[in-house]
Amino acid sequence: MGNYFQPEIECASPEQIRAWQDERLMHTVRHVYDNVAYYRNLMKERGVEPGDIKSVDDLYKLPFLTKDDLRDAYPYGLLAVPLRDTVRIQSTSGTTGRRVVAFYTQHDIDLWDDCCARAIVAAGGTKDDVVHVCYGYGLFTGGPGLNGGSHRLGSLTLPMSSGNTDRQIQFMCDLGSTILCCTPSYAAYLAESICERGLQDQIKLKAGIFGAEAWSEEMRRDIENKLNIKAYDIYGLTEISGPGVSFECSEQTGMHINEDHFIAEIIDPVTGKVLPEGEKGELVFTSITKEAFPLLRYRTRDICVLSRKKCSCGRTHVKMTKPMGRSDDMLIVKGVNVFPSQIETVLLNKGYAANYQIIVSRENNSDRLEVQVEMTPEMFSDAVSEIAVREKELVDALKSMLGIYAVVRLVTPKSIARSEGKAVRIIDKRNLYE
Ligand code: DLL
């Protein structure tokens, strides 16, 4: 058994959870139909009316929503309340052209804070803890989400944001941080830096809440051993609120989805057919308590499995496995969502052919992005210094497109292996989903 932030909700009977879902789903469908022309049109195209949705069993009648819809409707097309009722936006770590903006009323933020507070309590957090948040603050949901959860719980919150490792470690030692919230790769880097400085004895951490990117069990063990903590996974996405859509409990065998706020489905990513519990497929969420930005049947592109097996922690909400991959080609590099098509656009704009390879690896616990691209035959005869100038030009163009640094290597024409089938453009050496 464990501690709960909202025991009456987190341990509610399956019948009670289902009753909440049925009622809130009907309400949300009516809300978007009445207030969002984009939805009304989508539903009319499908021949569905709000009255057709009477329970979760009717969910399949609704159309899916994808990132493309969010882009089409950018910026205000899916906003379901008057602007004057909203208080905040957050945005994905994506980039130019692909950014998704999510809106929140104060009530939406309150419920999001509850979700993150549940995650902190599940990791052993109480009012007596010192919660050290080094997820990024700003448009990214990580910092504001865990910050809000920690406030809601009443813990002392250190809004550190990311970077400046020396200061992170100093505050951790001086203020006695007990719960660390950041990406797993930054946690691994912090752990290594603390060990290198021989400061293990001076930190009081007992738990970590790590998410926003894929991480392996080996990485978990490494962080747990180095920092002498228990490391918990947390999942979420900007579109559906941010971190805290689901979180790990003491059993550490998957993450409980906050089903009083989000209905989860698993579908076949190719046919869109809903799959039975236990089958692997794409996770789809319907938010049922959002005011400003409710999404119906939003395709996350994350591949995972749901399980309703009884959990020893006492929580009754369905569990999802760690994401096992994606049904699109999005990469998450240094916490930033990167689409290979963006890299290709930069290369083609700069006069290169589409003979390139994207290599992602992990070096010193940090992601490394390398783009290898073939020179055109004309460039091949250039002096070494000119090639260096060209590489620098691509580094800058990629930085402005992606927001992160990529190593660029211009290679000789025809040196990148041609494939007989689909081109192998992405080599991800991180083995994130194994
Ligand atoms: O990453 C929200 C978040 C912040 C979650 C802090 C946890 C902690 P986005 O930037 O919109 O939002 O990226 C969402 O990140 O669809 C997954 O592919 C991936 N992702 C998020 N959490 C995990 C996790 C935040 N625990 C996308 N394991 C999602 C693996 C994750 N992948």
Topology diagram in text:
Layout: H1 7-10, H2 14-35, H3 37-46, H4 67-72, E1 88-91, E2 101-104, H5 106-122, E3 130-133, H6 142-153, E4 156-159, H7 165-175, E5 179-182, H8 184-196, E6 207-211, H9 217-227, E7 230-237, E8 242-248, E9 255-257, E10 262-267, E11 281-287, E12 298-304, E13 306-307, E14 319-320, E15 325-326, E16 331-333, E17 336-338, H10 340-349, E18 356-363, E19 366-374, H11 377-380, H12 384-402, E20 407-411, E21 426-428
Parallel strand pairs: 3-4, 3-5, 5-6, 6-7, 18-21, 19-20
Antiparallel strand pairs: 1-2, 7-8, 8-9, 9-14, 10-11, 11-12, 12-15, 13-14, 16-17, 18-19
Bound molecules: 5'-O-[hydroxy(phenylacetyl)phosphoryl]adenosine.
Residues 92-93, 135, 141-142, 211-214, 233-238, 242-243, 300, 302, 322-323, 332 line the site of 5'-O-[hydroxy(phenylacetyl)phosphoryl]adenosine.
Provide a short characterization of the protein structure:
The chain has helices at residues 7-10, 14-35, 37-46, 67-72, 106-122, 142-153, 165-175, 184-196, 217-227, 340-349, 377-380, 384-402; strands at 88-91, 101-104, 130-133, 156-159, 179-182, 207-211, 230-237, 242-248, 255-257, 262-267, 281-287, 298-304, 306-307, 319-320, 325-326, 331-333, 336-338, 356-363, 366-374, 407-411, 426-428.
